Amino acid sequence: MHKAFFLLVLITGLGIQSCDSDRVFDEYKSVSTWNKDSIVTFKFQELDSLEAYNLFINIRNNSDYKYSNLFLITQIQFPHGKVISDTLEYEMAAPDGTWLGTGFGDVKESKLWYKENVSFPEPGEYEVRIKQAMRKNGEVDGIENLEGITDVGFRIEKTTQNN
């Protein structure tokens, strides 16, 4: 009985790991209330400069999130000082209010495309910064404290053409 259970756990674990073989970096940071001045930062070391990678922003939200979209300001800082900044908008809910993310219960997870076929040619540490940039319609000032986002993640995957 114990051998069968151990074998089942081992096969399941290997199956899960092989399904995620494209993953190079995957990290989450918890946020309870995301202040407009709070920056979520991810750092990673040099990757194979001959490979191309796809970048994703992962967002976990619950029913306290009151909006159908999400605006983010992102930056990638390269080791030698180059910075690439982007302002991004993502749909988080369908027109009927149904969350687009996956998951059971109150928390939904959205895997959002950030950049495609990116290379990291410089040796050293890279830094990705993510900041919320939500505003209410017709208002200039941003939402001071954004509720309903529970975690912000950053993921790097090998492109499928590399496999």
From TrEMBL:
The protein's name in its UniProt record: Gliding motility lipoprotein GldH
Organism from which the protein derives: Autumnicola tepida
InterPro entries the record matches: Motility-assoc_lipoprot_GldH
UniProt cross-references to Pfam families, sorted A to Z: GldH_lipo
Keyword tags: Lipoprotein
NCBIfam families xrefs: GldH_lipo
